[in-house]
Design a protein that fits this description.
- The complex is a heterodimer of chains A (114) and B (113).
- Chain A contains no helices and eleven strands.
- With 114 residues, chain A is an all-beta fold.
- In chain A, the strands form two sheets. In chain A, strands 2, 4, 5, 6, 9, 10 and 11 form a seven-stranded mixed beta sheet that branches. A four-stranded antiparallel beta sheet of chain A has the order 1-3-8-7, with no helix packed on it.
- The radius of gyration of chain A is 13 Å and the shape is globular.
- In chain A, 37% of the residues are buried.
- Chain B is mostly beta strands and 113 residues long.
- Helices cover 0% and strands 51% of the residues of chain B.
- Chain B is built from no helices and twelve strands.
- In chain B, the strands form three sheets. In chain B, strands 2, 5, 6, 10, 11 and 12 form a six-stranded mixed beta sheet that branches. Chain B has a four-stranded antiparallel beta sheet with strand order 3-9-8-7, with no helix packed on it. A two-stranded antiparallel ribbon of chain B has the order 1-4.
- Chain B starts with a strand and ends with a strand.
- Classes of the chains: A mainly beta (114), B mainly beta (113).
- Chain A binds chain B through residues 4, 33, 35, 41-45, 48, 55-56, 58, 90, 92, 97-100, 102-108, and chain B through 32, 36, 41-46, 49, 51, 90, 94-106.
Chain lengths: 114, 113
């Protein structure tokens, strides 16, 4: 079974631009969560989608948004990029939502904002 | 709200030596506790988890962790470290229901010959 796939793996953008990251979950998984990982803050939860509905949202500004499609694939978008948005963005999928469902992580998308 | 502290940012151990990575959590109710490992260029992989029951839990790759409620700790241990264990380790705490996991900032493990 293929794991969680994230595209692209690396991305370089400049301040003010916007970016879209993609996540394909493991087949059969309906929940997708996004995390931002930085050296200073560690892993911080962005949001979770389940059955195309946002179930949870972390403490990030509205520039960060996401969506989930009917095939469970998910995208996250960051508008008006800032230098501080440089990070590794991780996607995790699970069969369903809730603490008992193990999350499987993708390799991440490394975003650099210049 | 939950919080997790991993007091050690970086630990270096010799191959074959024992390992203990510390994790302290803060949560008013019964916590759900996890340890993940992240190798360079890869995502996180679940090593083990504690929900209830036996406070000593066994995980993959020869790791174990012990839940100590009185100390609010969930330390990760391995009796003999291999060079391939060099990675970053994250402790996380969750709660019942649909609240997201809260991760510690991680401990980077280096293994020397």
């Amino acid at each position: 079974k293929a794991g969680v796939t994230q595209t692209p793996r690396y991305l370089i953008k400049t301040r003010g631009q916007q970016v879209t990251l993609s996540c394909s979950p493991i087949s059969g998984h309906r929940s997708v969560s996004w995390y931002q990982q930085t050296p200073g803050q560690g892993l911080q939860f962005l949001f979770e989608y389940f059955s195309e509905t946002q179930r949870n949202k972390g403490n990030f500004p509205g520039r960060f948004s996401g969506r989930q499609f009917s095939n469970s694939r998910s995208e996250m978008n960051v508008s008006t990029l800032e230098l501080g948005d440089s990070a590794l963005y991780l996607c995790a999928s699970s069969l369903s939502t809730g603490i008992y469902n193990e999350q499987f992580f993708g390799p991440g998308t490394r975003l650099t904002v210049l | 709200a939950q919080s997790v502290t991993q007091p050690d940012i970086h630990i270096t151990v010799s191959e074959g030596a024992s390992l203990e990575l510390r994790c302290n959590y803060s949560y008013g109710a019964t916590p759900y506790l996890f340890w993940y490992v992240q190798s360079p260029g890869q995502g996180l992989q679940l090593l083990l988890k504690y929900f209830s029951g036996d406070t000593l839990v066994q995980g993959i790759k020869g790791f174990e962790a012990e839940f100590k409620r009185s100390q609010s700790s969930f330390n990760l241990r391995k009796p003999s470290v291999h060079w391939s264990d060099a990675a970053e380790y994250f402790c996380a705490v969750g709660a019942a229901g649909n609240t997201p996991l809260v991760f510690g900032k991680g401990t980077r493990l280096s293994v020397i010959a």
